[in-house]
Amino acid sequence: MKKLWVVLVTLLAGLSLAQTTLRVGVLLPISTVAGKAALNGVQLGAEQVNASGKVRMELVVVDDGNAPATAVPALTKLMTVDRVDIVIGGLASGVTFALSGPVKQYQPLFLCIGAASSVVEQAFSDYGRFFHYHPWDYHNVAAALEFFKYLYDNGARRVAILYEDGPFGSAGIQTYRQQLERQGYTVQAEPFKSGSGSFTAILTRLKAFRPDILYWIGYDVDALPIAAQTRQVGLEPKLIYGAPPAWPVGFEKNSLSNDIAGMTAWLPSVANAESRRFVTLYRRKFGEVTDEYMAPMGYVIALSLGRAAEAAGSSDKDRIAAELAKVQMDTPFGPLSFKPSDTGRTRYQGFNQSIWLQFQYLEGSRRPVFPPNRAARPLRFPGNY
Amino acid sequence: MELLLQTLINGVLAAGIYALVASGLALAVGVVGIVNFAHGEFTMLGAFIAYLLFVGSGLDPLVSLGLAALVLFLVGSLTYYGLIRPVLGAPELNQMLLTFGLSVALQNLALLLFGANTRVVSPPYQGSTIHLLGLSFGVVPFASFVLSVVLLGGLYWFLGRTRLGLAVRAVAQNRLAPGLLGIEKERIYLLAFGLSAALAGVAGVMLSVILYASPTVGFAYTLKAFAIIVMAGLGNLGGVVPAAVALALAEALVSTYLPGGGGWVEAVFFLVIFATLTWRSWRAA
């Protein structure tokens, strides 16, 4: 009996020595749909990693409030009170930009889930422990332009761009305009105040322009007013294409959303093995399926971190970073590996424009419609607005 | 000409909801004498009531109007008794800080309960359009304009034709004399603040259909309401509708005729406040 205990204790001690324990800070805007989805994804990924038994991931979750003023003290707490070495976070560009100083001060391994703005790329250009999974804004533009080229080939000629006049909507609008004009489009761009809900005047003026595509760059608060008021003024574009960071809750159930198109990195209907596996696991854990691509993004980050920690056999952040740089894995978005960013500013860039797909709200849900090889349904063009 | 007419229609229809939000605020300022910074959050509560009833039981927002008004009347009355009444004798800065604090608290409560996301209701008539003589406008903005006119007409009738309404106006004009005539000032304050919140609740229900429900939905409209009551003259209920029409028309005209005018829309109401206050101080000098 005594021998049995000795063997058991030795085995347990051996197991605990073989298991790498990681304390990971998760800094996300958990009161937003995207932030909650990202957190769910990270938790699901961590659960999978822990189930393997080789790496034990302990998550310390804090809310960044989707605001720099909340995020910076939250990161400081993670680093000084919770003493984590690894942080998963950085969903919104503005928040992540504000975190660049404190991150460089505390030197964690920073696994960035969102923050597409090139301003963030510049801010982290001299930081070697920065792994950016999400595509950069120039990847987003490239993917959207590919779709606009397809629309041009299908007869679209005039694009009316409605852009919110804050940093999100107006950054790069001139470049965007030029690129569309280079494709052969005639473009009319109009600024608006996001959240004002007043579009009838601008849309009335646009009637004279007779746009084939109404392209709006704004926030979720603008989605429904634009959809309703486009009809109310009788604009009748062939396509309404929106580019908000998130869509309103329940928008897909509103008949006004029908035929409206947009861009996302993932939908549950994406047909690859990892995506199907993710959907199954997510449904099992949370009892529902999400449309938010931040959920699989969080999941991928946790899985890749687990894989790197397992290869490193250590909780040392630099050894994990070195292994993460070598990671090659299939994900719900497609293959993941890290390369220097296209501009060469950051060393570890995960995904690029190839993960983006265009969707259309059709019969109460978002369906992939472009590129053709990933489309679940043909694009309805012209749409009925 | 068609563009001008369409712009004028757009402006007039927008004025309905502006007037509804501003009338409630004017009632609180004019009768109770308190600048209620939480007025936008009462509007937000109305929007969420409509949203929850729609999602929970499929109740059409038009049906939930009455319930929202009643709930907000109670919320307003409780707010008056619990928070406003104790500070009525305090300096104005304290009163403003109190309502500002209430605004922040309600907004954060909504953030905790519902998150920061935008939520939409989907009644079948939401995108319906009326075409008339080459002009077109939405059924919902038109209905909300008509409803605003009816409600405000009812309010003005109440204030001008009923004993209780006359008592409200008497208290608004002089805080001491009505007491000598047996008018219970406290009761009038309670009624006015409750009505003010109820009007905000009704406006919130309309906003949930026209725009969305979110913790910040009332903010932009409260700013405009402040511009309107400044333009009308603080507490001058009769001036609210003309001021709302003037502001909405100015916004529509700027948005239509000024290049890049959509970005200037929000500047219009600041310009209105600035111009009105400057003009008043010149006139007084």
From TrEMBL, chain A:
Keywords: Signal. It holds the Pfam family Peripla_BP_6. Gene3D superfamilies: 3.40.50.2300. Residues 21-342 form the Leucine-binding protein domain. The keyword Signal applies. InterPro entries: BCAA_transport, Leu-bd, Peripla_BP_I. Belongs to the leucine-binding protein family. PANTHER family: LEUCINE-SPECIFIC-BINDING PROTEIN, PERIPLASMIC BINDING PROTEIN OF ABC TRANSPORTER FOR NATURAL AMINO ACIDS. This is Leucine-, isoleucine-, valine-, threonine-, and alanine-binding protein. It comes from Meiothermus luteus. The gene is braC_2.
UniProtKB/TrEMBL annotation, chain B:
GO terms for cellular component: plasma membrane. This is High-affinity branched-chain amino acid transport system permease protein LivH. It is a multi-pass membrane protein. Belongs to the binding-protein-dependent transport system permease family. LivHM subfamily. Keywords: Amino-acid transport, Cell membrane, Membrane, Transmembrane, Transmembrane helix, Transport. The keyword Membrane applies. GO terms for molecular function: transmembrane transporter activity. The chain crosses the membrane at residues 12-35, 65-84, 96-115, 135-159, 188-213, 225-250, 262-282. It comes from the Bacteria. Signal peptide: none annotated. One of its GO terms (biological process) is amino acid transport. It is found in: Cell membrane. The keyword RNA-binding does not apply. Pfam families: BPD_transp_2.
